[in-house]
Amino acid sequence: MINFKKHREFRKRLKSAIKKGTLGLIDIGSSKIVCIIIKFSKLDNNSNNLDQINETNSFAYRVVGAATKKSIGIKKGEIIIAEEVEKTIRLVVQQSQKMAASIIDEVVVTFSGGSPISKNLYQEIRLDNQSVSSNDISILLSKYAFQVHSEQREILHAMPINFNLDEKTGLTDPRGLIGQLLGLDINLITIQKNIIENIDQCLRNCQLNLAGIFYSPYISAKSSLVEDELKLGATCVDMGFGTTGISIFYNHQMVFASNVRFGGANITSDIMQAFQISFNEAERIKTLHGGLIITNLDDNELIELSFADENKAYYNYERPFISRSELISVIRPRFEEILEEIQISLEKTGLEHLSSKRIVFTGGGSQMPGLYELASEYFGSRVRIGRPMRVQGLPQALQGSQFSAIIGLAIEINNLQDEVWDFDIPNILGPGQKIKSAVNWFKDNW
Amino acid sequence: MNQTKSYPRPSKIRYRLERVWLRLWLRKLILYLSLILVFSTFCLLIFVYSNDWIKLKEYKNHFKNYIFERPELSVSKLEIKTANLDLVNQINAILKLSFPINSIKLDINHIQKIINQIDSVESSNVRIKDSGVLLVEVIERKPVAVYRENDDLALIDLKGYKINNIFSRNDRKDLPLIVGTEGNYQVKEALEIYQLLSNYLNEIRGLIRIGERRWDIIFKNNKRIKLPEKYPKRSLRKFLSSDKSYLISSNDFVIIDLRFTNKIILRKLTEDITKP
Lengths: 446, 276
Prior knowledge:
CATH architecture of the domain at 5-111 and 195-216 and 397-422 in chain A: 2-Layer Sandwich
Radius of gyration of chain A: 23 Å
Largest sheet of chain A: 5 strands, mixed
Strand content of chain A: 25-35%
Structural class of chain A: alpha+beta
Number of helices of chain A: 15
Strand order of the largest sheet of chain A: 3-2-1-6-11
Shape of chain B: elongated
CATH topology of the largest domain in chain B: Rossmann fold
Oligomer: heterodimer
Largest sheet of chain B: 9 strands, mixed
CATH architecture of the largest domain in chain B: 3-Layer(aba) Sandwich
């Protein structure tokens, strides 16, 4: 049986950081690395702080420092040059620390990539006609074959999403109910091995402790989906630079997560190859003039290409102008390909019926004009371009949808989702201190 | 794919130092340590030099002298701007300055006070010029009349202020003589009366203030003209322009009394009066 030692350690660090008052959040993205520092409001000193946190389960906090920088050495959301990533993390952490005028020791990281696989596991145990206790749940959790899934891969998330008791389903807290058969669905997300270790290593070289790691499509959805969408079910598509993440939510739980290994970078490199311009110039005209739907006007709208770069010899001097329709005709096929990939992976899940066919687009790529019309064609009418929610104290510059992941992280920290490692290790010997604390935990969290 | 060029980012050491510096307790520690250091060095200095206060004073004096003897600060010359050579000598004698003097030590207000106390000085202006010159500009009092009081002859200015004594009336024959209590405070009126009598100046001895209220004009042959309290000049002008002005030059009368507006009272020369 695997006991999630590392994840329990992360949780402990996170709790202690919240108790101390400051916590750093870092988004390691393919295009940029963002760091924000949140400060929790002082809790009452007379009572036990940790108890108070558990009671309310959400607490006031405020963003006091923020910095964002272009990332180097990250490809498809994965670290490929550790030293460059370290340097960039150092820069963003230094800048945000300066803004916050305090240092951070614990950071929570979100990232995409690592080719995640989402699996729904189901196990059930037979009860002896008694009311369900927390020890029963712990015993139930110990029956899952996590070991099998973590042989070649690493567990990133393991979320209990749905309890079944006899014929009843959709339970969130089965304790105290009487039944014979207790079943539990767990959404397990595994990624390639050593990715968490790499991130941990990078952070340790920056004198930071990793206090939790979250998968970015899940986190983006937390900031982009509204309450009703979380309840009734929705799909969130996080269009990043390196990858496009997909997460499906139902009944406030993420039931599926995946990613498509295409992103904004592919579009940029298409433009770069089509017009023989530099990568930075292609990125510039994509963000300034890009679009997905050609109108008659676009034939006449000429975009000037600048060749102000070092290796000029590479570029095509003979065509200083391209029309906007040309640009769109380069962007659109790649976008369609991405949407197709999303559709394929959604079909594969077999969960389409759950999500009430609502799709929310977020991330930097969702700012492309005409995405709504194009996506409506693909997925039907229930498409929405999401904007991240507000977080207190966040600078105006960081409120765009390309920052939905980091904002979602701040929201998630406020109201942590339970994972398997939040439950206590089952105490077979009988009732004792540990069970008592497990009961307390349940009381507080469900 | 990712063709982003590298850009400057902090080195590991700089990052760590900044993190250390952001720790609040460290900053407080450095503050208190530096305060303690400054205080302790001060105490140490006192402890070391406590047996040698004289030496410390010497150092202090040396430093003081070093500043005071700067050539920029020294005053080397006294320049007095006035017409009268006697006054220059008088000021020199009173001030008794020995050059060069440090300009910090020089009390200009005191010097000005001293100079203003000299009788013949009306006002003065004392300042230090750039070139190390102490400049004294003096406005003298101008003597306009001779005033006699208890056999002392004094020169007075227009305001009646006594400038200095003279030994004999003959020293300043050019100035009119004024006698009588409080007469010196009506110098202006007396001078105007003199001006009216410009034709008879050689014959006049002087003016007497009678009872601190009116004037008598005394002639050399003991003849006197008694002027009224009110409008003395007008009545005198009236008298001089009238056909009775010849009375001044006649020797028959010893007193011409103009105190009444509508009549002139004359007193004849008699043995009794002239020889008391």
